[in-house]
Amino acid sequence: MNSSKPRKIVFIVSLSFLAFLLGVITGYFSRPVHKDSSQQLLEKLNRDGDWRLLEQFKEYVDTGYIDKVIRDLTRRPGLAGTPQQKINAEYILDLWQQQGLRAEIVQYNVLLSYPKGNHTNKVSLYDASGRELFTSKSHEKVLVEEESPEEVVQPFNAYSPSGIVKGDLVYVNYGRAEDFERLKAAGINVSGKIAIARYGKIFRGNKVKFAEDSGAIGVILYSDPADHTSPGDERYFPGGMWLPGSGVQRGNVVLIKGDQSTQGYPSTNYSYRPGEEEISKRFPSIPCHPIGYEDANFLLGSMVSGKVWQDWQGSLNLTYHLTGLMDNRTVLMDIQNENVYRPIYNVIAKISGTIEADRAVIFGCHRDAWVYGAVDPITGTSILMETARIFAKVYNSGWRPRRSIVICSWDAEEYGLVGSYEWVEDNMKWLQNEAVTYVNLDSGISGNYTFSSRTVPLLHDAVYKSTMALPSPYPHDSTDTLYTDWRSRSETRSGLPHPKIHPIGSGSDHTPFIALAGIPSTYSEYTGYIVDGKVIPMDDYPLYHTRYEQYELVKMIDPGYTLAKTITLFHCELIRELVDARILPLNVRTYAGVIVVNIRQLEKFRADFKVNKVEYAELLASTERLKTAARIFHQKIAHLDHNNPLQVRMINDKLQSVERAFIVPEGLPLRPMYRHLLQSPSGLNHYGGTGFPGLEDLLELPNSNPEKWPQIRKHVTILTHSIYSLAKFLEND
Amino acid sequence: MNSSKPRKIVFIVSLSFLAFLLGVITGYFSRPVHKDSSQQLLEKLNRDGDWRLLEQFKEYVDTGYIDKVIRDLTRRPGLAGTPQQKINAEYILDLWQQQGLRAEIVQYNVLLSYPKGNHTNKVSLYDASGRELFTSKSHEKVLVEEESPEEVVQPFNAYSPSGIVKGDLVYVNYGRAEDFERLKAAGINVSGKIAIARYGKIFRGNKVKFAEDSGAIGVILYSDPADHTSPGDERYFPGGMWLPGSGVQRGNVVLIKGDQSTQGYPSTNYSYRPGEEEISKRFPSIPCHPIGYEDANFLLGSMVSGKVWQDWQGSLNLTYHLTGLMDNRTVLMDIQNENVYRPIYNVIAKISGTIEADRAVIFGCHRDAWVYGAVDPITGTSILMETARIFAKVYNSGWRPRRSIVICSWDAEEYGLVGSYEWVEDNMKWLQNEAVTYVNLDSGISGNYTFSSRTVPLLHDAVYKSTMALPSPYPHDSTDTLYTDWRSRSETRSGLPHPKIHPIGSGSDHTPFIALAGIPSTYSEYTGYIVDGKVIPMDDYPLYHTRYEQYELVKMIDPGYTLAKTITLFHCELIRELVDARILPLNVRTYAGVIVVNIRQLEKFRADFKVNKVEYAELLASTERLKTAARIFHQKIAHLDHNNPLQVRMINDKLQSVERAFIVPEGLPLRPMYRHLLQSPSGLNHYGGTGFPGLEDLLELPNSNPEKWPQIRKHVTILTHSIYSLAKFLEND
C-alpha cells in the first residue's frame, strides 16, 4: 500500500492537471471572440485590389467573341444618324443584357451633316473654253464584296457649307500654320484661290481654318501616296494595307466639338436650339471636299507655277507646283451638304461598386463609323465588348469591384465627338463629383507595330504598371512583357527609362472628359506598321476613314487577334487596378514633373517675357512648390493608416480632384470651349497636345496685337495661381 | 478500505471537476478579446455630435469679452487700406493665438478708392448770377468725443469717378427701376440732369446704375428723415438712435464685387492688373456723392416743378418736387476721388477636424468699417471673436470636432466684399472640394427687435433647430426659446409654421462663397427697432455707415449685451451642429420645396412663355422629379447603416455638393460674374435675392430686343437641366 500511495498521488495530480488543461481549452474556445462585425466591416472596407484576377482574365479572354463582334458590326455601314446605328446599338444592348450587365440606350437628338439628296459633290477641271476636262469620282470603287454598297455615303467633309466656287489652285502642303507662313514668305497669294492640301500631320479642320484665314475660297483635301503607301510596294487593298487610288478619307471639319446646336448643355428633347444662321457661325465659311490621289493627280498635274520645295513634294508621279493652272484652266467645286437633326444612341452599362459605389471609372469607345469602320472604331469596340464580357463573367463568379464601372458605346463620334460630349454635358454634375478616370478606346488596333498610349501624366504609372503585368504579344523569351516590347519600339526621352507616352490631345471621345470636366483620361492602342520586318513611318493607317476599312483589313493587321487579345487584357488589368486599388493609382509627382519639363520649354521666350513684364519667375516658383507638395503628399500616402477607411477615402478624394485644379470656368482665353489649362488640345492641331495650350494660342498672336502681351500676363497669372492652388490643396489637412 | 473507495472516487472526481472548472475560467479569461482596435476605431469614426456641448457654451459665454472687443475696435476709424486696419488685424491675431488657435494674417494688394488728397468733395447751389448759395458740409459734426477725429474719412461714395458736373436736379425717389419708369411715364426727363435719390429699399450702386442708364450726369444720394428717424421722436444721436441732420451714409457704388483689378483671380503679388482705363469700365461713368438731410433740405427746397406723388414725399418740412430749380439756380457737383493700391489684411484661424479634417465649416465677419463701424461690422466681429474664444476653450478642455472650423476676419468688405472675394478666389480649389458651409456675420446686432436670417434653403432646418435649442433673450416664461420669440415677431408665409427666412441675396461676405463657389451660406443677426414698446418700420438702422456708429450706439441698442450673447450662442450651436453632426444638417427637401414655390411665381408669365416657345412644362416636370428624388434621398438617410463610415461619408459628399448643382461656369446670361442660377443677387437690387436671378434679368429686357426670348429659352433649358442633374445625382448610386 505504501508503495502505491505516491503512484496514487501522481495519478490524482495528473488527472487534475489534465482536467484543468481540458478546462482551459474549453474555456478558451467557449469565449465568444466576435471576429466581430466591426472587424469584418473594416476588413471589407479596407480590402485592396487583387492582382490575381488577371489570371481569370487570361483564362476568359476569347478571340472568337472579338471576331464575332467585328464581323457583325462591319457588315453594313455604321454612319451616325442612319437606321443601322440604332440596330447596332440594340445589338450591343442585347449582348450586355444577356451577359447580365445593367445596360440602357441613351438617346440624343443632334445636328448631323450629309451630302444633300441626290446631289453628287464634286471637284471639276475646266479648260479655258469651259469644257469639262475632269470630274472627281462620286464613289470609291467596290473592291471587296459588300452586303449593301448603296448604303455607303459618298466621300464628303461633314459640316462643310454648301457652295459653288471656281478659281485657280494653290498647293498648301499639309495645310499647317507653318505651311501657310512659308507660302506667305514666298509671296504666294492664297487669297481668292482654292487651296489643295494633303491629308496628314494635323487635324483636317485646322487645315480648313488656316486656309479660310488666308482668304482661300475653297479647300480640296486629298490623300497623297507619300503618306498612304509604301514606295515600291504595290500591295494595295485588298491585296494589302496600302491605299488604292480611289480611296478617300472622309471626316468632319469643325473645331468646336459636341452637338453644334447645343453648346454647353445636352441635346435633350427640351433643349433650346438657336436658328440655322447662328449655328452656321460654328462651321467653316468655305466649302471643302476630300478626294483620292487618282483624282488629285489630274489637279496637281495641271499646276505649272512655282516648283515646290523638296519637302513639299509628294509621291505622285509629277512635279508639284505651288499654284497656277496651265492653259487658263479653272477648278470648280460644287458642294451641296445639308444639316439635319437626327437621333443618336449611346449604350451605357454599369457595374456598381460595393464599397464606394459613388466612385466610377468610365470606359468608352465609339461605335459609329464613316463607312464600315472596321479599324475605326470597330477594333476598339470589339475590345470594349470583350472587356465588358470578361468583367461580367468575373462579376458573375463572385468578384465585386470597390468602385463602379461604367461602360459606354458612343454614337456620332465622327461628327465631332457628339455622343460623348452630349452625355458628358448631360451627366456633368455627377461626373465632376464622382468620376475618377476615363479610359478611352477608338481604333484599338490600327497597326501591328507597337503599343502606344496618349495619357494624362497622373495616369502614366498606371499604364506602365498594367503593361508590365502582361506578356508580350510577340515574346522572344518568357520574360518579355508588353512593357519591354513597347519600350524596345518606342522613342524614349533621353535620361528617362520608360517608353514615351504622348500628350492626350483631342481627336477622340476622351475630349469632353478631360478638357471640359477635368477627369484624368487615357487612350491606348496598337499602332504603326511593320511590314516584312520593316517599320513604315506614317501618321495613321492608310485606309483611315475610307470605304476600305472592312473586316478583311483587320484580318490583315492582326490575323490571329493576338494584338486584340493583348489590348483587351491591358484594359481589363488597367480597369481592375483603377476600380479596385484601395489607393487610386494616380501619381501627382509625375504630373508635377511633366509641368516642370513643359515650363523649361518656355525658356526660349524668357527674353520676350522679361521685356513684356510676364511674371515668369513666379510661374517657375509655383512649379517648384508643386513638386515639393507632391513629394510630401505621396510620402503621406506611404505612411497612411490603411486600416482607417476615412483616411483612405480622404487621400483618394484629393487624388481624384487633382486634375480639376486645371479646369477654369472661363476656358482658354482664345478658345473658351476648352477649359483645361494644360490638357486641352493644341490650337494648331486638334489631334495634338501641348504644354500650355492657352499660352501657345496667345504666343501665336502677332506682336502688333495690343492685347497679346496683356493677355499673356493675365494667362500666366491664372496658370501660376492654378499650380499654387493645387500645391496648397495637397498641403492642406 | 472498501468503504473509503467510493469516497476516494468522489474526491478524485470532485477534484478533477474543480480543476476543470478552474481551467475553464483561466482559459476563458486568458483569451484576448481585443475590445479590439477595430471596434474602437469604428466607434471613433461613427461618433455623432453631442448637443450637451451647448451647456458648456452657456457657461463660457462672456459679455465682458464682447464689450472689450467692441470698445477696442471702435476707438479709431477702421477704414480699409489705412494703418489702423493692420493694427486691428494684429489685435485679432494676438487674441486668437493667445487662446491657442492656429491663426495667420493673409494679405492682398487691392485697388481702393478715397477722396483725393486735400480736396473736399462737395455739392453746391448757385444762383443765376453764379453766386454760391450753399455748399454741402465737408464733415459730419463730432457729437461724441473721439480719440482721433482727424482720421474720419469725409463722406464719399467709393469708386465714384472724379468729375465736375453742373445742371438741373431731378428727384428720383429711391432710385429703383420702378421709380425711373414712373418718371418716364410722367414725361419727366432725367437725361442731362443731376439725379437726387433718397437712400433705402435697394443697394445704392443699383440707384446709380439706373440713373446712369437714364442719362443722368451725376447722382446725389441723401438720407431722408422718413427713412432714418421716427415721427415726433427727437432723440437723435447721441441722445437716441435716430439720424441727426449732419449724418451721412458712405458706401461703394460698384456692382461687380471683389478687387476691381483682378476679376476672377486673387490679388496676389504676382497677379496681372489691367491698365486704369480698362478697370474704370467697371465703375459708374458719372460722379455720385452722399449728403445728410440738413444739406438735402437746401437742394430739395429749391425745386419747384411738378409736385411729387404721395408716396414719393419724404419727411423734410417742404413740398417735394420732381425737378426744376427756382430762379434759374444750378447745382454743381465737384468730386475728386482717386483709386490706389493698398494692402488689406484678412485674419484666418483654423481648428482642424479629427475625423474628417478635409471637410470645413467657414465662419466669417468683416472687420473694416467706413468710420468706427460699431454696429457694422464690430457687433458681428465681437460675436465672431467670442464664438472663436468659446470654441478655443472647449477645444482646450478636450472637445475635438469631426470637421474643421475656419474662422475669418475679412478686410475691405465695405469696398465691395474685397477681402472675402480675394480669399475665396485664392482658395477656390480646396473650397469647392472641401467646404461644407459658410456662416456669415456682419452687423450682428443692428437692432433690438427680432432675430432675422438670410439663408439658403438647404440650411433652413439647421437655423431653425439652433434657435429652438436656445432660450429667448426676452423670456416671458421658461419655455420661450429664441425660436418662439422669432416666430412671434416674424411675418410668416400663410400655411407655413416657421418664421420667415429671407433669400440670401448679396451685400455681405457670403457672396463669393454662395454666388461664385456654390457653398451653402447663412447670415443671421438681431435686427429691427422696437422703441418704447413700438415697432419702428425701417429698412436699416438709421446711423448705418455714418460717423455715429460709435460704441455708444451699441450700448443703446443692446445695453446688457443680452442680444449679443444670444447671437453668440446661436452661432456656437449652429457651428457645432455643422461640424459635428455625423450626417450634415442640409435638407434637400426644403430646397426642392422652395424651387417649387418660386416656379409658381412664374405662372404670371405662362402665356408669354407659351407664345414664345419657352419649355415651361419641362421646367415644372424637372422640379417634380427633384422633389421626389429629394424625398427618397432623405428616406435613404433615415435607413442608413450609421455604423459604416464610408456610407455616411458618401451621403455627406452628396449633400455637400447639392448647392454646386446650380453653379454654371459661364455665369448668368447678363451678369457672368455671378455663377449661381438660384442664389445670385437680384439684378434690380444687389442686396436682395430672387427666385431665378438670371431669368429675372432677361425678363426685364424690352420685348423689342430680338435676343430676349431666344435667351430666355436657352436659360430655361439650363435651369431645367440643372434641376434634372441634381435629381439624377441624388438618385444615382
From TrEMBL, chains A, B:
Keyword terms: Aminopeptidase, Calcium, Cell membrane, Dipeptidase, Disulfide bond, Glycoprotein, Hydrolase, Membrane, Metal-binding, Metalloprotease, Protease, Signal-anchor, Transmembrane, Transmembrane helix, Zinc
Pfam families: PA, Peptidase_M28, TFR_dimer
Domain Transferrin receptor-like dimerisation: 616-730
Location of this chain's protein in the cell: Apical cell membrane; Cell membrane
Keyword Protease: yes
Cellular compartments per GO CC: apical plasma membrane
InterPro entries (alphabetical): PA_dom_sf (IPR046450), PA_domain (IPR003137), Peptidase_M28 (IPR007484), Peptidase_M28B (IPR039373), TFR-like_dimer_dom (IPR007365), TFR-like_dimer_dom_sf (IPR036757)
GO biological process, one term: proteolysis
Gene3D superfamilies associated with the record: 3.50.30.30, Transferrin receptor-like, dimerisation domain, Zn peptidases
Chain ranges of the Peptidase M28 domain: 346-552
Membrane-protein topology: Single-pass type II membrane protein
Cofactor: Zn(2+)
Ranges for domain PA: 165-252
Major subcellular site: membrane
Record protein name field: Aminopeptidase NAALADL1
Lineage of producing organism: Eukaryota, Metazoa, Spiralia, Lophotrochozoa, Mollusca
